[in-house]
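# step 3/5: fold
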Amino acid sequence: MFENMTSSGKHLICDFKNITNTKLLNSKLELKLMCKNICIENNFTILGEVDHEFHPQGCSFVLLLSESHLSVHTFPEKKHLAFDLYTCRQYDNNSVYINIYVELCAKLGTSSAKQSECKIIDRTFSSTFSKKVEQKLDTLDLPL
């Protein structure tokens, strides 16, 4: 499947800050439903899930996808949510990931430009280390 590919997919990493929809932020059930809907809308296949609820507040969960994973960790006391989505899908551009980010901003009640951060990382099979980093790694005695 990936024999002739250099990309292993894209990784969407988001930090949503100053969330105003605190009802959603404080509901593990509603957050999971929102993320499962994102998976359905984008034809991601959910293989399994694990979650944990913290007391007095907060939660973490991971959806294992056939395409890779989606994870969420909340910090309700800081009105913050960390979101991570990695898929091996090969898209022509970042529009799918940008649309997911914009949708999450709207549902969480946070401004995409001022109150959140989003990174889309191209994952590759080939090494992209700089020479300097590679030389530094060579000096370390790391087990193989």
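# step 4/5: annotate
The CA atoms of residues 15 and 104 lie 11 Å apart.
# step 5/5: archive (pending)
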